[in-house]
Amino acid sequence: MPLVTTKPVSMSNGDLVTEFVDSVGTTETEFSFPSEQNYLMVKNNGNVPITLKLNGLSRTLNPSEEWSGKTSFTSVFLTSANQTQQVNVRSIRGVMQGDAALSALYLAKKPKTTGNVLDFMGDSITDQNIYASCRGFVSWATALTNHQIKMGNKFATGGYTSQKIKDEHLPNLLSQNVLPSYCTVLAGTNDIGLVPATPLSETISNLTFIYDSLLEAGVTPVLCTIPPRKDNAGILANVYRLNNWIRQTAMKRGLPLVDFHRVLSDTTGGYSSPSYAADAIHPSKLGAKVMGTELARVMSKIVPFYNVNLVTFESDGNVIPNALNLIDTNSDGIPDNWSKVAGTGTFTAALTDPVNSDIVGKWFSITKTDAPYAIFRNSGRTVIPGHRYAVAFRMKISGVDVATMINLNVIKAPNANSVILSRVFSEWSLETEACTIYREFTVPLDVTQVQFDLSITGAAVFSSGQYTLINLTELNL
After folding, report:
1. Quick one: pLDDT at residue 11?
2. Distance between CA 134 and CA 425 in Å, rounded?
3. pLDDT at 13
């Protein structure tokens, strides 16, 4: 039972903040504090889920996910799913009263990223941005800008009101070791849906506090109007009032505005197309694409242009050979170093030329024509344990049907228990113009080889190329 011996830092309001990074494995580890704590934040820094047990309650944290809460405790129990990996733990012992408690987490300034990182904060609509799925508007925005904006961390939970977002997710975001340059703030939908509804003045107060706190920490808040909702006349009126306040605040304070309501709604205040809505509140995958397109439009005018480091010639700097798909020794349409390894799905493959210079090299195009899945694998590549890598590639998708589901993962090689190290993109099922996908991941200490696994279910024409895997640690990045 490790005793936490990290010396706490005394904050200006008298709170004592303790923060440390440690490793947890498949055997439950208890971290014991020398005195009672009043606040806990745990972040999963690894590549597989961990289990957190606190005061008899258990919850699962997926990779990069955080949990926080105000509660009294002296011990925390953590377990990793199937490998040893790092977690970040922060606790506070102190008064923790109201908004003053948040100052303990953001008045100690953290260095801000100087690049294009965008974090995203909100409720279930933002929470859909998981594993780079096309259900998430941030996933779409990063792809459609060719990662001119880089997907940062998610701070969102389904059902959360603006008060809960302010009290829990805001301090978690502001307590990161490195802050983002930008953060979308999409909140208020659940305030309006409560019975009785949260007074508009309270929602405005909470959002103002969030905006001000981000600005004070050097993070630019990206103000987002809430999507259409017209359960009844009262809710419809509150949606209009809140969104008008958000629009006017953005204009008055000179802050970026992403008007999701405008691009999704019709003249009655509902969704302008049934295909944009998953239900009366949440956008569908197509709705998320519309939202992501608007976010991309706004952010592309704000963020300096960045070229993702995609391979343009066969280079020792890139871990993946034949990255440009120029070699197909047996002329089967599948480039060397790729092979079909599982599934009964019917497909054809071809190496196709660029269209209007939309790729360097050739497209590796797979045409699936039936429902059963097919899995393709790029053979294992040697990596350095503990190092951080960037993975990037170009892709485009057409010819989808209702059964389409496309996933690309970086996994441990050889394929032992399919340990996923990075979900490059997940559950992608919509047609997508040529775009760039980019992710980063840290190689676990017990991994020396990785490989790409591409699975396609249902009909689709999936084309990809310029696969790039760069060791960032060697570049001091």
Report:
1. 59
2. 8
3. 55
Contact call for residues 142 and 169 (beta carbons, < 8 A) = no
346 in Cβ contact with 373 (< 8 Å): no
Q: Which of 250, 184, 260 is nearest to 222 (CA)?
A: 184
Among 86, 99, 104, smallest CA distance to 37 is for 104
Q: In angstroms, how far apart are the furthest CA atoms of the chain? A: 70
In angstroms, the CA 19 to CA 192 distance is 36
Burial 50-83 (b: 16+ CB within 10 A, else e): bbbebeeeeeebbbbbbbbeeeeeeebbbbbbeb
Q: Is the bond leading into 196 cis (omega within 30 degrees of zero)?
A: yes
* 8 Å CB contact between 411 and 377: no
Provide the pLDDT for residue 465: 95
Low-confidence ranges of the chain (pLDDT < 50): 95-109
The predicted-structure confidence for 24-80, as pLDDT tens digits, reads as follows 888 888 888 888 887 787 888 777 888 888 887 777 887 777 777 767 788 888 888
Cα–Cα dist 284/136, whole Å: 9
Determine how many CB atoms are found less than 10 A away from the CB of residue 211: 21
Report the C-alpha gap between 336 and 321 in whole angstroms.
Answer: 9
Residue recorded with tokens 């790039």: 468
Cα torsion 20, 25, 27, 29 to 10°: value is 0
